[in-house]
């Protein structure tokens, strides 16, 4: 049951891992001083995005590359009910489909304790309008949705509550939020960081059992490393 729940949770966050009007204390992390800096308005290529992804050496000993989540994505469906629109919004925010972006890259990792893992989605945009929509949609999700629910193909239900998450400001824009609830009766949590560097957005999540808004260390460390790598790629583009 615990393994099944983990697959459902990671599948859900892989199809959509974005949101919040976060930053420190849940506010925007916009840094006007970095707006329009030389080279930061460039759209990254697929190869450049892939070079900016987190890799296994970025994690402590014992972590593993997640090779099962992609297959599990097909198990998640939008459940009928009042919050089905919220789930669809959630999935649309950071789908691995391009949807206005020029390139997309994904990486996922399992924690050694079997309690969950960390995932990353990178998207680079060609226009400011598509880029800005990423954060507008995130703000609308948090403002309009209190709960998000899903049902997998075997009928296992996941019910999550949308909440605030406090993380340091990163990149040119940053946002954060948290989901907490139950999957197949098991307590789960998913913490998110969304960061923009130039015209590229990285979405990171830390998902697992009994994770709550106080468990920010893993996500914060991953986000800082991800932004450092992305900053270097953008600077060299």
Beta-strand percentage? Answer: 25-35%
Structural class: alpha+beta
Low-confidence stretches: 1-8, 10-36, 69-82
Question: What's the structural domain tally?
Answer: 1
Strand order of the largest sheet: 1-3-4-9-8-7-6-5-2
CATH class placement: Alpha Beta
Rounded mean pLDDT is 76
Largest sheet, if any? 9 strands, antiparallel
Report the principal-axis shape.
globular
- Give the total of beta strands: 9
**Radius of gyration, rounded?**
16 Å
Oligomer: single chain
Report the order of strands and helices: HHEHEHEEHEEEEEH
Number of helices: 6
CATH architecture: 3-Layer(aba) Sandwich
Q: Helical residue percent?
A: 25-40%
What's the CATH topology label? Protein Transport Mog1p, Chain A
User: Any idea what the CATH superfamily is called?
Assistant: PknH-like extracellular domain
Task: Walk me through this protein's architecture.
This protein is of the alpha+beta class and 237 residues long. It has a single domain (2-236), classed as 3-Layer(aba) Sandwich (Protein Transport Mog1p, Chain A). Helix content is 30%, strand content 30%. The protein has six helices and nine strands; from the N terminus they run ααβαβαββαβββββα. Helix 4 packs antiparallel against helix 5 (128-144). The radius of gyration is 16 Å and the shape is globular.
């Amino acid at each position: 049951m615990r393994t099944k729940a983990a697959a459902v949770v990671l599948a859900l966050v892989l199809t959509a891992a974005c949101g919040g009007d976060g930053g420190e204390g849940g506010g925007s992390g916009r840094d006007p001083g970095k707006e329009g800096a030389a080279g930061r308005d460039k759209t990254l290529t697929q190869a450049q995005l892939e070079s900016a992804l987190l890799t296994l050496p970025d994690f402590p000993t014992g972590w593993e590359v997640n090779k099962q989540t992609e297959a599990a994505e097909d198990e998640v469906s939008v459940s009928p009910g009042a919050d089905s629109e919220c789930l669809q919004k959630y999935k649309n925010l950071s789908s691995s489909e391009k949807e206005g972006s020029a390139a997309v890259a994904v990486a996922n990792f399992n924690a050694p304790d079997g309690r969950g893992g960390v995932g990353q989605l990178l998207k680079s945009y060609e226009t400011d309008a598509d880029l800005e929509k990423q954060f507008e949609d995130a703000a609308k999700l948090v403002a309009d949705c209190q709960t998000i629910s899903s049902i997998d193909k075997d009928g296992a239900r996941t019910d999550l509550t949308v909440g605030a998450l406090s993380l340091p400001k990163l990149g040119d824009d940053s946002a954060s939020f948290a989901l907490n609830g139950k999957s197949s009766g098991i307590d789960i949590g998913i913490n998110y960081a969304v960061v923009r560097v130039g015209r590229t957005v990285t979405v990171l999540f830390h998902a697992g059992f009994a994770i709550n808004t106080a468990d920010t260390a893993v996500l914060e460390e991953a986000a800082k490393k991800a932004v450092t790598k992305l900053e270097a790629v953008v600077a060299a583009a």
